[in-house]
Amino acid sequence: MLNIDNNTKHIFVNLPFILLSKILKELDDDLDIICFSLVCKRWFDHRNSYLSFNCDYFNKSSKDKLQQQLIDNSKFFKLKSYVDIFQSSLDHLPNCLITLPKNDYPFSFPSKTMYTIYNHQHLESVKQHKSVRLLCDYQLPDDIDRLPLNVKEIMSHFFINPSILPLGLKRLDLNMIYNFEGNLDLNVALLPRSLKVLKLSEKYTYFNSNIAIEMLPPKLLEIKFVLFENSQPDNIAQLPTNLKIAEISLCWLKNIKHLKSIHTLKLHTDITEEGDDVLNLDTKDIPRGVTHLTIISNSRYQAISEETLPANLKYLKLIGHFQLQKDSFTVLSRSITIDLSCAKFKATIMHIPSVNNTLSFPDNVVNLSLKCEYHPFELLSLPNKLEYLDLGGAYGTVIRLPQTIKTLRLSNSRLELKKESIPASLETIDFKYHCKHESTSPYFKIVTSNTTGTANDTQQ
Fold this sequence. Notes:
F-box domain-containing protein; F-box-like_dom_sf; mainly beta; five-stranded mixed sheet
């Protein structure tokens, strides 16, 4: 039988402390938390019942050092009344901690099974962990014969000799952003056979493109070959058959032509060539199973015609310079998301106010993000089944919107939205400032029959 005299965990007796604890969870700064507990004597006297500190920013070494200071009653720790609470907060930290540098690395936050360290100096301290993610912002020393077996993922801004990689490695990401004279020969035969993700990209350093494709690890599920030497690989062998995600230069397209497992493809169409002429993008070698396609053209305008795009796409994003035709997207037959927010278009499409230049979208487009550059709304021919619409740099008066739209994003201060043009299906209007052409925080005019209101980018 429950002892009703023991009120330590009784929810009604402790309800004030439960509420105070939930309020404190909304405060990020420990100084604010301390000030909160000093509001009145009762809150201070019962601080152990509801108060805890945010210790998520401590890594393992700083946590251990601080705990030792608390035990030793260090003179550097002045909050004597909060020592026990701080100790309790540290004790509740999980064993898995993450230390992040200032650089943005392309990975998600680790699960409890993955321990992340920054640079090789910390390898000795994580011997007891089964899975370690290693982030390298420095060149590894030459005296390393082989990295420990518990290193499962490596992201590095410097080249790493495959001969020192651990045999159980699952992910290798070499993002070569630092200058290195000469070309690098990557002996893929030395890569661990356990690799599932391999990413090679460069800025100043050039990998030799004649990679022995047939020697790549057979279990690869994701690959990235973005090579800034626009040379044609001599080898036409196919990449590993289980590949699902690929980011490659255009010259590698024939090496995935017959792969049925690829569903996501990011294609870099030009690397170093520059010029004013328009190139006809040849995409006949895109695998039929690709449903998510991103095309990147940084230097040259690529012509996108009806014949360019695979018909079964579910997602299409264009980044960079393109030339579109009126019917560029009409071939798309499935429910699809089209993202043009990062695209720049050549000639007259979506730019010159002429009915003949209207860009058509098929009715099966469900989500549409338009380019950030200025374009008149009157030239838009919007599909009838849209659920999400980002008008990008559209300007002018919004006369009519599809009656199926649920989310509308606005980012141009030169756009006027009338009440009668807002469909009944609309659930969210997102005022977002992202267009580089806006020099100040944008304001949007929403016109009703009685009033005219404005909303800036902080309102949603």
